[in-house]
Design brief:
By secondary structure, this protein is of the alpha/beta class. The chain has one domain. The chain is built from 8 helices and 10 strands. The strands form 3 sheets. The chain has a 6-stranded mixed β-sheet with strand order 7-2-1-8-9-10, with helices on both faces. Helix 2 runs antiparallel to helix 3 (93-104) and helix 3 (93-104) runs antiparallel to helix 7. The protein is globular.
């Protein structure tokens, strides 16, 4: 079985979804430290032809808390309005914007569950059938850290393959994984240009941008365009 483990991010770029699509079981790593100023609650969208940073507003976020101990603010109206303004003329707006609003109005404001719901909603829209679980729901040794904790989770789940995003190449050792019978690979996303209004293509934006400009069939083909290292 192939497993992927990643922190939940706010509508992350397509490489995150390529990883989910590439594994049998995907673990939302929600009982690890919240990184303030990272990508857990931020992302880039397209606004007036430029890359634009948007923020999911949080309550009392702190690096001293776990992701599942942080909460989302009740009102995200400014963010919703920004997305509406940015994409109202996009070809898939009428289909995607209601889904986005539904995601933003999810009643459980615990950050991990809020982001987890967005991941589940979008994987469902894209007909990705990967099983999704929360790390906090797995009975494990929470005293372990970093690579040792990831290996521990993989072994508990019966994984023989583990895929991580390419950014983890400096964090994890293929030799250490293979010692426990697990093959470690790193997924490097390939970003294919697509039409964004009449602008020069701006890559590495939120999956929301991909959804707004592409039909499902085209997105599903893009999910397969990556390299495993």
């Amino acid at each position: 079985m192939t497993v992927g483990i990643m922190q939940p991010y706010f509508l992350p770029y397509i490489g995150y979804w390529q990883l989910i699509n590439a594994v049998d079981k995907y673990v939302i790593y929600d009982d690890v430290q919240f990184i303030k100023g990272g990508w857990i609650n931020r992302n880039y969208t397209l606004l007036n032809g430029q890359k634009h940073l948007v923020n999911l507003l949080l309550s009392a976020a702190s690096p001293n808390k776990l992701i599942n101990e942080v909460y989302v603010q009740e009102s995200q109206n400014k963010l919703i309005k920004t997305i509406e303004t940015a994409y109202k003329k996009a070809p898939m707006f009428d289909e995607i914007f209601p889904m986005f609003v539904n995601i933003m109005e999810y009643p459980d404001k615990q950050l991990a569950k809020f982001l987890g719901n967005s991941i589940i909603e979008i994987t469902g829209y894209l007909s990705i059938d990967t099983e999704i679980v929360y790390s906090s729901a797995i009975e494990k040794d929470n005293n372990l850290k970093s690579q040792e904790k990831v290996l521990h989770i993989c072994n508990l789940l019966g994984a023989d393959k583990y895929i991580n995003a390419i950014g983890g190449a400096e964090l994890y050792s293929k030799e250490d994984f293979i010692k426990t019978g697990i093959e470690l690979s790193f997924l490097e996303a390939k970003i294919e240009p697509y039409k964004q209004f009449k602008n020069e293509f701006v890559p590495y934006l939120s999956i929301l941008d991909v959804l707004m400009f592409n039909e499902i069939s085209k997105i599903k083909s893009k999910l397969e365009i990556y390299t495993l290292l």
